[in-house]
Structure formats: C-alpha cells, structure tokens
Amino acid sequence: MQAKDYLDLANRAVSELVPYTPGKPVEELERELGISDSIKLASNENPLGASPKVTEALKQGLEGLHLYPDANGFYLKKALSEHHGLPPECITLGNGSNEVLVFLAQVFLNPSVAAVYSQYAFAVYPIVTQMMGAKHQQVPALPVGHPMALGHDLRAMYGAIDEHTRLVFVANPNNPTGTWLSQDRLRDFIGSLPPHVICVVDEAYTEYGQGDVLGDASTWLEMFPNLVVTRTFSKAYGLAALRVGYALANPGITDLLNRVRPPFNVSALGLEAARVALQDQAFIEQSCAMNEQGLVQLKHGLEALGVTVSPSAANFVLAHFDRPIQQINAELMKQGVIVRPVANYGLAQSLRITVGTALQNERLLQTLADVLEHIQSA
Ligand SMILES: Cc1ncc(COP(=O)(O)O)c(C=O)c1O
C-alpha cells in the first residue's frame, strides 16, 4: 500500500490537519550548519533555567524511575490547590497545558459544533478544533492603528458566537502577538456569554504580567461556571522539558476533562518538579524582573534599528520588518541566533523573539544590526 492510501484512510479532519511548527532546537541548527555557541530565542523558554530547588528534588526523584507516577498527582494538586485557593476537584493536570487544550477539544468539540478564536491567536486552538472536525469561527484581530493591534477583538468575538459555538479560546496575553486584554473587558466578555459556550482563558504567560495588568481569571471561577483557565510550568517556571500544565475549572467540567485524560499523563519527575517550583516564588520574581528589563532592552534596541514592536505582556516580542523575513531569519541562523518566524500565522514580515538574558538580547540586537546592514548594502 502506498503512503497516499493512508491519507485516504485517516479521519477527514486529521487528513486536513497542518501540524504545529516548533522552534528550531539549538542542536539541530548546529548539526545542520556545523556551528557552535548558538542561542535560541524561539520558544519562550526561561533563560534563567529552573529554580535550583527543582534540580535538587529531581536528583531524589531519579531513584524512583521504575515506578509509575501518582496517576492523580495528589501532591501537586494539593500545592496548586493552596496556591490558587481552589479545591483539588477544580484541577486537571496535563502533559503541558497543550494537552489540556486537547482535552477541552475532545470533551466539547465535534463536527456539528464550533470554536471561536481570534486571528493570530495561539496556533494550537485551530489545530485542536480541526482535530475534532469542528467548525472554525476565526475572528479578525484588532486592526493596525489600535493600541493592541493584532490582539483579540472581544466585541467581534462575541459577535461570532452562535448556537453552534461550544468553546471560545482567549489567550491572555496572546502568543505570538504579546498583546493582552484589560481585566474589566475580559470579565464583561465572559459574563456576557450564553451558558452553552465555555470560555477558555489561556494564561500561559500570566506570571510575566507587570503589576496587576493581567490579573488572574481563576478568581472568577465561582462567578462563571463556564470558565476554564489554563496555566503552564513551561514558561516562567522554566520546566518546559518536563511538560506540566493544568486547567482550573468548576468540578463538573474538571470531571469531564479527567475522563479523557490518559493514565499517568504527567511523569513522576514532572509532578515533583512542578510541586517544588511552585514553592519557589522568589525564583519567579527574579525571572519576571529580568524579563521586564529584557523587554525594554529589546524594544529600544529593535526600534533603534527601525523595527517596530507590538506591545507585550509576555516573555517575547513580536517584531515587524519592512520586508519578508526569510533572508533576515536565514542570516540570523547562520550567525547562531534562532528566533521564530511567524509566517504560519499570516505574519510574513514579523519575527517573534523570546526575551533572553541581557547578554543574549545584546547578541541578538548586534547580529540583527549586522544582518540588516549587510542586506541593505547588498
Ligand atoms: C499561549 C500558549 N498556550 C499554551 C502553550 C502550551 O505550552 P505548554 O504545553 O508547554 O504548557 C503555549 C506554548 O507556547 C502558549 O504560547
């Protein structure tokens, strides 16, 4: 049988699925180009790594590699329950928050219903919608000229909701744009939704919000039974390798999400690392302070090069160039600097750049200055 036949055999929704494009790993670039000393500012990882307390805890965890993890994640849920002031019955653990988004789609989407999400919203929303064969209700983003241009237009998203809508995905802040929503407007939006629509507020980057600009939508769970908040340990907590995320929702929704959760979906090391990481809030403060400085450094440095930058409440910036970015990106890679093209989002002239350490940011800015000069003089 030829490969083409398998495509014919696949679920129609899957055969039309375009998979997620991850950031290029450093090892891959170095292998391909025969270079070393590269930096990766492409996947919104924490340049400080993880809390040193986690590394210690993992050494002890290595002794239990032959044992299955606690399928219910009792101790991590207990720690999260204390952290959020919510009972464990409101928590669903995922292999990264990505998996929780998959659970939401599996539970609530099918070919006769729809999901609403914004243009330029995180790529996984259309993927999980497509995976279930559900209808896409993609809504145009806020226009150029708006202070949050490319961000979610909540009014338009509300306008798109109809009797078929089951899920509305809201990323606050959004990846890849970095844009965010005011707490008042977001609360009003959720409050205005009909009861058959579940609002998923994805707070993957929420720790990075300065002051109370991003708030904490989980404090509204009692008010809104149709709210689900997703969080991750991959970003500020620096545990992307271990794949731990979670959803906070009322017990009814949580019960449904846990019905589709595979057994042992979070590893024992992941459970323990996340539990310990949660206790080290000083590390989060340190990471956020460094990120705050890095955002300013990148914004000023990029603007000095004539590159505009979208406002960001996350650990990355979306940089806009006056030309398609293929050549710029290729030249940056040759110099060992990996950033993230976002043409898959329909943003062919933009690059998403993760905030690194001050030194990494400086290297990116210097390399980009050289690359732009070289291109302009060619
Ligand atoms: C907005 C948003 N949500 C969710 C995720 C998923 O992250 P993870 O599966 O590592 O928790 C990401 C990752 O980049 C993201 O940007």
**N-to-C order of helices and strands:** HHHEHHEHEHEHEHEEEHHHEEHEEEH
Kindly provide the radius of gyration, computed on alpha-carbon positions and rounded to a whole number of angstroms.
21 Å
The total count of helices amounts to 14
Mean pLDDT: 96
Domain tally: 2
Low-confidence stretches: none
Let me know the CATH homologous superfamily of the largest domain.
Type I PLP-dependent aspartate aminotransferase-like (Major domain)
Give the bound compounds.
pyridoxal-5'-phosphate
Strand proportion, as a percent range, falls in 15-25%
Helix content: 40-55%
CATH architecture field of the largest domain: 3-Layer(aba) Sandwich
Number of strands: 13
Distance between the ends:
50 Å
What would the principal axes of the Cα set say about the shape?
Answer: globular
Major sheet strand order = 2-8-7-6-5-3-4
Biggest sheet: strands, sense, closure?
7 strands, mixed
Find the CATH topology of the largest domain.
Aspartate Aminotransferase, domain 2
Q: What would CATH call the class of the largest domain?
A: Alpha Beta
Structural class: alpha/beta
Features:
378 residues, alpha/beta, Aspartate Aminotransferase, domain 1, Aspartate Aminotransferase, domain 2, 14 helices, 40% helix, globular, binds pyridoxal-5'-phosphate
